[in-house]
Amino acid sequence: MQDIATRVWNHKWKIDPIVRSLIDTDFYKLLMCQSVFRNKPDTTVTFSLINRTQSVPLAKLIDEGELREQLDHIRTLTLRRGESTWLRGNTFYGQRQMFTPAFMDWFEALRLPPYHLERVGDQYELTFEGAWPEVMLWEIPALAVIMELRSRAVLKDLGRFELQVLYARAMTRVWEKVERLKSLPDLRLADFGTRRRHSFLWQDWCVQALTEGLGGSFTGTSNCLIAKNRDLEAIGTNAHELPMVYAALTRDDAALARAPYDVLADWHEEHSGNLRIILPDTYGTEGFLERAPDWLAGWTGIRIDSGDPATGAETAIRWWKARGEDPTEKLVIFSDGLDVEKIEQLHAQFAGRVRVSFGWGTLLTNDFRGLVGDRLNPFSLVCKAVAADGRPTVKLSDNPRKAMGPAAEVERYKRVFGVGEQVEREVVV
Amino acid sequence: MQDIATRVWNHKWKIDPIVRSLIDTDFYKLLMCQSVFRNKPDTTVTFSLINRTQSVPLAKLIDEGELREQLDHIRTLTLRRGESTWLRGNTFYGQRQMFTPAFMDWFEALRLPPYHLERVGDQYELTFEGAWPEVMLWEIPALAVIMELRSRAVLKDLGRFELQVLYARAMTRVWEKVERLKSLPDLRLADFGTRRRHSFLWQDWCVQALTEGLGGSFTGTSNCLIAKNRDLEAIGTNAHELPMVYAALTRDDAALARAPYDVLADWHEEHSGNLRIILPDTYGTEGFLERAPDWLAGWTGIRIDSGDPATGAETAIRWWKARGEDPTEKLVIFSDGLDVEKIEQLHAQFAGRVRVSFGWGTLLTNDFRGLVGDRLNPFSLVCKAVAADGRPTVKLSDNPRKAMGPAAEVERYKRVFGVGEQVEREVVV
């Protein structure tokens, strides 16, 4: 017997909104947003969507009207009362009132600023321009919307039982990964999979699978909404956008060379403990650590987000030792292109030598590889700050395939930061 | 835990189609269609939507784009294999092969012809023009679509629990009616509620409630799809459109006066037993019966569809007696604006004197009166043949409020059929 009321309810929705909350975003975005709100509130930035996997023709797959409906829906969102209460009152990284009343007042009044969308060939040009603290909050929902619309475009062709089997297989795959990870002693792992997830519900399911399967080894999720709903820790610290924008704002080479450290000096003022995590690869890890002031060696840990992760971690260990720090007390967070094999390898190599932690992203929340041919395979979509106060941003990374910025500026940055030959690595996600 | 596959499936539909099958229509439409296909295949007709309840501003309530999507969807439908098998092989009114191979071949190849839709003030002008056997099949789906879009427009404003309560109340109401009807001895009642139903699922639920509650007193449903799916009798005979079009095609008063009997002469050729039901009110019941040929008195019964039903039935009884027929062997089918009180009254007055049967329509399948203020109250929407081969049709009815046609033609018909003063009765549905 059909439940008519439920069915009518389900079909009343004009659209099935993908992002339904302003806190359906990564925790580090909010931390960084508060830092920017305090330190650089008047900076104007441009964020731009970049599909690094050009073989996925997003504009052919995703209807422009549907994309606009989803983005327009996000612009209707405001912080709900319960969400605000949670941000104001919850303990994050052991600390109460992580978010200041001034920031929360601002956030409660916020609606996301306009977007600019244009189809260019088979890709979309999606950009956001305006005040940094506002525009930066578009990154995660914009990515999540495009990823999920792409999933839906592929799922459209599947029958009811094909869908049932598809999800059954994907669930089995996640669960088999969990079973393997269970056997790693003292594993610490968090979900970092919001931005390139298959769908919101799927991320939510994956998080529940990790909670159930990994117990205390699962440290939490970067997704604030899921952390709130599922009573988990919200996880995350800072990202490349801070040094990229700080660097773009500088007026000479000397200031540019200082910019990455200025970012962390500001962060040092604001945060302590496990939130003091260095992200060293924006303009090359080696040079960054060599020239780093001593107070940075006192920070809690480092996040390895590009290049060969083992090499990056060994570099960090050598650096800590050279600065008289005990690596076994330091935290190394791996967060680049992880899957279960890589996690096992890195765990085997570094467990005991440092405190190891994993931020597992796309291949946790979007591993449908091979389940509908290659049509649901994850791909490398990012949404980055490309300009600040009218000046282009540059990223060098430890993997030149992840580099971005105008060629002349890239050369200048390489010179200033002393970056030489780099090894190219395939960018899966 | 969400069933993600089911949820994805539910949200994949661009629209939630209201009419999903060519046999989601009244059985008598198919009987008449076969008759027209045999006797008047080349007649061109125009069907037109008429909202007799002008206080319901359909064009304000229903989005034109959504209406077009629903109508366009109906034009994509063709007879499914199982539906064709059922029509070809099922027993209707005790007879096998009710539908001839020639008709079924034609029906299998059919798609409904184009429609013309225009907003005029707060109402829609919706017309269908073309070959009679094709155009006539638009009537029921067109009505059902508009009725259900109107329901949806009202339901749009309701929350999830309001919907739950709404349907709980409506179900309670139907069930209380069933409980009352249960006590009527030898009741015979069928569902005639397709065209003005609240929704397809709701009609389906009502039919199941009658099946469960009334047992053998529930004789079946006019809806072919529900009859097929629920293994019930498909019920229905013929309607006003036959005499209206036959009459419009005549060239002089003498032929006009004969037209209603010509219709039944054709029907007499094709059908026997319980399908030989006179519908006498198109141009006035009194005159029709007075001038009827004797072979018509030998028919099985009569359907009372306008005017005071008790008066109509008494008239029929007197007529049968005058023609030497035994009324207790005759069937009287009441089908106009019935609800449970009226059914009880008519049952009390006529049970035993004739074989009584009820065709319960709108107040079975669309009684949400008072449940959302008056916003879900049923209203009087019809879709009628308004012209045949370029000549206007006329209906007089036993209730002048149901009359239609150009004034001069109405006067001519009244003269030809000897219709004098008539009593106006409110048209509820």
TrEMBL record, chains A, B:
What transmembrane ranges does the database entry give?
Answer: none
Q: Which UniProt keywords apply?
A: Glycosyltransferase, Ligase, Phosphoprotein, Pyridine nucleotide biosynthesis, Transferase
Q: Which InterPro entries match?
A: N/Namide_PRibTrfase (IPR041525), NAPRTase_N (IPR040727), Nic_PRibTrfase (IPR006406), Nic_PRibTrfase-Fam (IPR007229), Nicotinate_pribotase-like_C (IPR036068)
**Nicotinate/nicotinamide phosphoribosyltransferase domain: residues covered:** 188-421
Q: Which residues carry this modification: Phosphohistidine?
A: H240
Q: Which residues form the Nicotinate phosphoribosyltransferase N-terminal domain?
A: 23-146
Protein name, please?
A: Nicotinate phosphoribosyltransferase
* PTM comment, free text: Transiently phosphorylated on a His residue during the reaction cycle. Phosphorylation strongly increases the affinity for substrates and increases the rate of nicotinate D-ribonucleotide production. Dephosphorylation regenerates the low-affinity form of the enzyme, leading to product release.
State the EC number(s): 6.3.4.21
Which reaction is catalysed here? 5-phospho-alpha-D-ribose 1-diphosphate + nicotinate + ATP + H2O = nicotinate beta-D-ribonucleotide + ADP + phosphate + diphosphate
Biological process terms in GO annotation: NAD+ biosynthetic process via the salvage pathway
GO CC annotations, alphabetized: cytosol
EC main group: ligase
Similarity comment text for this entry: Belongs to the NAPRTase family.
Q: What does this protein do?
A: Catalyzes the synthesis of beta-nicotinate D-ribonucleotide from nicotinate and 5-phospho-D-ribose 1-phosphate at the expense of ATP.
Q: In which pathway does it act?
A: Cofactor biosynthesis; NAD(+) biosynthesis; nicotinate D-ribonucleotide from nicotinate: step 1/1
UniProt key word Glycosyltransferase: yes
Instruction: Name a GO molecular-function annotation.
Output: nicotinate phosphoribosyltransferase activity
Q: Name one Pfam family in it.
A: NAPRTase_N
